[in-house]
Amino acid sequence: MDLPELKCDVCGQKAKGVGASRLGAISFAYCSDCLKEQAEPYGMMVFTVADIGLESCAEWFKLVIQGTLKRTNKTYEKFLIDLEEEKVRLEKEYEEMMSEIESD
Ligand SMILES: [Zn+2]
């Protein structure tokens, strides 16, 4: 039995292999182009930035944001909108978690 073709987790092209992500202790499949651009899966990148805050991102991480937007054909404006939505979602999730803890 053949394994399914490995697809890049960033852009969906044929992946070169699986590697450690710059987003944390996690691995994704990357194609050569996404590796070159330091791109990461868009949703995970947005989640990571929403969690740590755009103003807290290190200089090198700005290249990851740029590369990810380039490889996923997204504008910086779209990224900022998605980032705000993700922050609201995370906050809601946190409040729900806290109210569950308090109701115990
Ligand atoms: Zn790719």
Q: Could you provide a short overview of the structure?
A:
The chain has helices at 32-36, 42-52, 59-71, 76-103, and strands spanning 17-20, 27-30. It is mainly alpha-helical.
Indicate the topology.
Blueprint: E1 17-20, E2 27-30, H1 32-36, H2 42-52, H3 59-71, H4 76-103
Antiparallel strand pairs: 1-2
Helix pairs in contact: 2-4
Residues 8, 10-11, 13, 30-31, 33-34, 71 line the site of zinc ion.
Enumerate the distinct ligands.
zinc ion
Strand content: 5-15%
Largest sheet, strands/sense/barrel:
2 strands, antiparallel
Q: What is the radius of gyration? A: 16 Å
Distance between the termini: 50 Å
Structural class: mainly alpha
Helix fraction by DSSP (H/I, runs of at least 4): 40-55%
Shape category: globular
Written account of the structure:
The protein has 104 residues and is mainly alpha-helical. It has a domain at 38-103. The protein has four helices and two strands; from the N terminus they run E-E-H-H-H-H. It has helices at residues 32-36, 42-52, 59-71, 76-103; strands at 17-20, 27-30. A two-stranded antiparallel ribbon has the order 1-2. Strand 1 and strand 2 form a beta hairpin. The chain starts with 16 loop residues before the first strand and ends with a helix. The structure holds zinc ion. Residues 8, 10-11, 13, 30-31, 33-34, 71 line the site of zinc ion. Zinc ion (ZN) is lined by residues 8, 10-11, 13, 30-31, 33-34, 71.
